[in-house]
Known about the structure:
Layout: H1 3-19, E1 34-39, H2 45-60, E2 64-69, H3 74-86, E3 91-94, H4 103-111, E4 116-119, E5 129-133, H5 135-149, E6 155-160, H6 167-178, E7 186-190, H7 198-211, E8 217-220, H8 226-235, E9 249-254, H9 257-265, E10 270-273, H10 276-294, E11 301-304, E12 307-309
Parallel strand pairs: 1-2, 1-3, 3-4, 4-5, 5-11, 6-7, 6-8, 8-9, 9-10
Antiparallel strand pairs: 10-12
Helix pairs in contact: 2-10, 3-4, 5-6, 7-8
Amino acid sequence: xxxxxxxxxxxxxxxxxxxxxxxxxxxxxxxxxxxxxxxxxxxxxxxxxxxxxxxxxxxxxxxxxxxxxxxxxxxxxxxxxxxxxxxxxxxxxxxxxxxxxxxxxxxxxxxxxxxxxxxxxxxxxxxxxxxxxxxxxxxxxxxxxxxxxxxxxxxxxxxxxxxxxxxxxxxxxxxxxxxxxxxxxxxxxxxxxxxxxxxxxxxxxxxxxxxxxxxxxxxxxxxxxxxxxxxxxxxxxxxxxxxxxxxxxxxxxxxxxxxxxxxxxxxxxxxxxxxxxxxxxxxxxxxxxxxxxxxxxxxxxxxxxxxxxxxxxxxxxxxxxxxxxxxxxxxx
Length: 332
């Protein structure tokens, strides 16, 4: 499938569903109401991009915007949502640290008539809506890229996985593997959990390459582990250009700044670049629509596409989120 069409199909329909009634709404909120977003931790560039989109659009719509950082504490994120209820924040959202732990607080918050949205990953509660990358499409896109690059050759893939409870990672793996279903030329060597840690990725790739020297694909379910894979291959003198028949393909999902640098340097072959800033924008808009009486018209799920970025096409992109220096001083 044409990648541009795939991207547009994944993102256009749900956004149009919201936009159809947007023009009839007032431009600003009344009485400087507050809206809020809770982040699970501060180290992921994706989260800052989403937070900046949420803040920029929320303030444009006339709201006071609150951004909180849970700093790797589920308990702190629960406290954020409890505080939103106590202080009567008009609408809120979260990138959940834990899909189950937040449910009681969210349920109590929504009982007062407030909308609550999830960004990036679902929450096990009856929330107003979910805004997320279509991670199955992300995995399929990278699988199709690899299949095209290694057509007619044996493929031995190592997947650098994350915590098995993270739904986006599950979807990215299933989408990738679906491309190779019943393919006799494809072998999945392993799916080790490297805990989204580049250091653990380095050690893991080194170990797997020693016992499986014919691995020719390393797929990271998050680009945050790419640097570990690159370092491992470099230390073993296996980091060679794509023109070399011994080249090992490194691909992943995210499109952060570090990964774009690796693609430009030729050490990473492809990334499925997400739209986190846009997800933040549409979360603020969806809250606004709900508060202005259009809650029934908001789709339950807004699934965003992405861009397949490679050394061959990266110069054609002008607005990749990974090339933007998003503010990190926006936390209350």
